[in-house]
Each structure stands twice: as C-alpha cells, then as structure tokens.
Specification:
Helix content: over 70%
Shape: globular
Largest sheet: none
Distance between the termini: 41 Å
Number of strands: 0
Strand content: under 5%
Order of helices and strands: HHHHH
Structural class: mainly alpha
C-alpha cells in the first residue's frame, strides 16, 4: 500500500472531523442554525444546494481564476491557488447574504475549507460531499 498516495486525502478526513465541533460552536456561540422542514428542504440542504454551489464555485469560479492567475506567474507559483480559494470563499459568503444577512460572514471558514479541498484534490464529489456533511452537522446540532 502506498501511504504517500493516501496521505493527501487525509486532509479531507481532518476537514470532516472539524465539521461537528464547528457546527456546535456556530450554533451555541453564534446562534447559527439550519432547520430543514420536510423532504424537499432536506434534499435541498444535503444534496441539491451543495452540488449546485460547489459545481459553480469550484470548477468554474475557483479553477477559472486559478488558471488565469497562474498564467500570469512565471515560474509557476503557489499563491494563485490560495488567492482563487479566498475569492471563491468570499463569493460563497455573498451567495448566502440574502438568506442569512451578514451572519453569512461566518460561512467564510467552511468555504475556505471547501476551497482547500478543491485546491488539493480537484474533486467535485469530495467538495459536494464535504459541503453536505457540514450542512448535516449544523442541522443536527440545530435540532438538539
């Protein structure tokens, strides 16, 4: 077994492990909540929204910005990937302002983690799955 090949994916496990304590903190300290009511609301929170948001923000926006910024840097540099992550995380927050108000600024932390997952793996499935897990954790602590 090649442990070197498996190690980069360990970061996803770490991000997933942060979800529950992060959701608890967001709910207990900041009053943030996610309370889907009914089947469609649960489907939206756990499947539809994560897939749509991640499909737009990661391969289109984040990767597009990354590629354009990388083309401007010779020799290749690491900063364009991080800058693209931060910009797409801010876009994620902006998408949530209409429904959450300025409390959406608190979504910057998970948005940066999702962007880092994209930066490391370029996997839409990993990003959408992690996003759905974040939502499930917040919904779980919101019902407790």
């Amino acid at each position: 077994m090649n442990l070197g090949a498996a190690r980069p994916w360990a970061a996803l496990g770490g991000m997933a492990a942060l979800a529950l304590p992060g959701a608890w903190l967001a709910h207990a300290a900041l009053g943030l909540a996610l309370r889907p009511e009914g089947g469609w609301a649960w489907a939206w929170a756990l499947a539809v929204a994560p897939l749509i948001e991640e499909a737009v923000l990661r391969p289109l926006l984040q990767q597009g910005l990354w590629d354009r910024m990388q083309a401007l840097t010779r020799p290749a540099a690491a900063w364009p990937g991080h800058a693209a992550n931060l910009f797409s995380a801010l876009a994620f927050v902006a998408l949530h302002v209409p429904g959450r108000g300025w409390d959406a600024l608190w979504w910057l932390a998970p948005a940066v983690l999702l962007g880092e997952a994209w930066r490391r793996h370029r996997s839409l499935a990993a990003c959408a799955g992690l996003h759905a897990w974040f939502n499930l954790c917040l919904a779980g602590v919101s019902r407790a």
